[in-house]
Write a structure and sequence with these properties.
By secondary structure, the chain is of the alpha/beta class. It has a single domain (4-254), classed as P-loop containing nucleotide triphosphate hydrolases (Rossmann fold), CATH 3.40.50.300. The chain is built from 10 helices and 10 strands. The strands form 2 sheets. Strands 6-7-8-3-9-10 form a 6-stranded mixed sheet, sandwiched between helices. It starts with a strand and ends in a 5-residue tail after the last helix. The mean pLDDT is 93. Bound molecules: adenosine-5'-triphosphate (ATP) and magnesium ion. Adenosine-5'-triphosphate is lined by residues 13, 15, 26, 28, 46, 48-54, 211. Magnesium ion is lined by residues 52-53, 177.
Length: 259
């Protein structure tokens, strides 16, 4: 059984006029069926506006779906009662594009990480610093900085903190929506490598979203190509990269600068 199973998922946004009448409907996600096997990294790629974030927000239950179904480990997430969903939430975590927006600027790194760690289990006050230090080391940060604030870190370091927060509650599914797009080119590779090693060490099932086919090819086992709300190509990463079947995938490939 697949760990995450999407079947015929639609996310439509009604767009209303100033008078409140319905003008039209944006079909951001328009019938997506996908499955992620346990422990695999699935890369979702497509140009800006094709519906990638709408789909990931729908999986995270941050955005209601118009129709279809989303199953995690065999359980239907869409329509799950709020209390039940709160319990399941620790199982799926997300890393966003902008690490600054996903961290509370008034929280020290310690406060931010201990909050995330204690979502899964209570940690006694006298060992909290040790737990945070261990987590920081895991994502390549130096624990001596735990009492600093997000603005005192570089973009790459902040994204490491955001990744630490995401893995803290020991999730099984990780959604990364353009996690390196906002970073300096020089640190993108390091953050990607961190994500690759964490998904392996922690046996995470991962949905990795990017508009960049090259980045996705680097990290994913399988690739899904999205265009205007639909999946137009889906297959083994090396296969899709070497022998793209759909004209849109070929277009994405030809847009990659050759070295
Ligand atoms: N809340 C909303 N209301 C109306 N339309 C929306 C809303 N959110 C997104 N859209 C539209 O839905 C479509 C898909 O947007 P989405 O953000 O999911 O795409 P994306 O693939 O993540 O793009 P990007 O690569 O720029 O992040 C776009 O046309 C967008 O303008
Ligand atoms: Mg997006």
């Amino acid at each position: 059984m697949a760990y995450l199973e999407l079947s015929d998922v639609h996310v439509h946004y009604p767009v209303k006029s100033a008078w409140g009448t319905l003008r039209h409907v944006v079909r951001a996600v328009d019938g997506v069926s996908l499955s992620l096997e346990k422990g695999e990294v699935l890369g979702l790629v497509g140009e800006s506006g094709c519906g990638k974030s709408s789909l990931s927000r729908a999986i995270m239950q941050l955005q209601p779906i118009t129709s279809g179904s989303i199953r995690l480990d065999g359980e239907q997430l869409s329509g799950m009662p709020a209390r039940e969903l709160r319990k399941r939430r620790t199982d799926f975590q997300m890393v966003f594009q902008d690490p600054y927006a996903s961290l509370n600027p008034r929280f020290t790194i310690f406060a931010s990480l201990i909050e995330a760690l204690t979502r899964r289990k209570k940690i006694k006050a006298n060992v909290q610093e040790d737990a945070v230090a261990e987590l920081m080391i895991r994502v390549g940060l130096s624990p001596e900085h735990m009492h600093k604030y997000p603005h005192e870190f570089s973009g790459g370091q902040r994204q490491r903190v955001a990744i630490a927060r995401a893995i803290a509650p020991q999730p099984k599914l990780l959604l990364a929506d353009e996690p390196v797009s906002a970073l300096d080119v020089s640190v993108r590779g390091q953050i990607l490598n961190l994500l690759i090693s964490l998904t392996r060490e922690l046996d995470l099932t991962t949905l990795f979203i990017s508009h960049d086919l090259l980045v996705v090819h680097h990290i994913a086992d399988r690739i899904a190509v999205m265009q205007r709300g639909r999946i137009v190509e889906f297959g083994d990463a090396t296969q899709v990269f070497a022998h793209p079947q759909h004209s849109y995938t070929r277009q994405l490939l030809s847009a990659i600068p050759k070295l």
